[in-house]
Amino acid sequence: MIDITNITLIVCVALGFALGILSGLTPGLHLNNFAAMLLALSPSLINLGLTPYEIASIIVFPRTLCWGLRLTVKTLRHSLEDRNPVLRLL
Q: What is this structure's pTM?
């Protein structure tokens, strides 16, 4: 059975995912802007029923997502620049 706490955590992670995509597509909008806004709004969000853990998941998830995507792109770009023809097939 899915608990309401798990559903709110999933919604917070999905919101963090959307903020990560939005900050990646919008020039000049960085994840630090969203982190500052969420920290400023955190007392109001806690009054609405979110836990600090859920607020932190909104902040941490996009950073982890961006780090993983950048690592993947750098790895693929580096392997394509190598002279080894086997690595170019990947």
A: 0.69
What CA dihedral angle connects 35, 37, 39 and 43, to 10 degrees?
A: -150
d(CA 12, CA 54): 6
Rg (CA), the chain: 18
How confident is the model at residue 44, as a pLDDT?
Answer: 94
In tens, the pLDDT along 5-46 reads 788 889 999 999 888 888 877 778 888 888 899 999 999 999
* 33-59 exposure pattern, b = at least 16 Cβ within 10 A, e = fewer: ebbeebeeebeebeeeebeeebbebbb
Provide the residue type at 31 as one letter: L
Contact between 33 and 23 (Cβ < 8 Å): yes
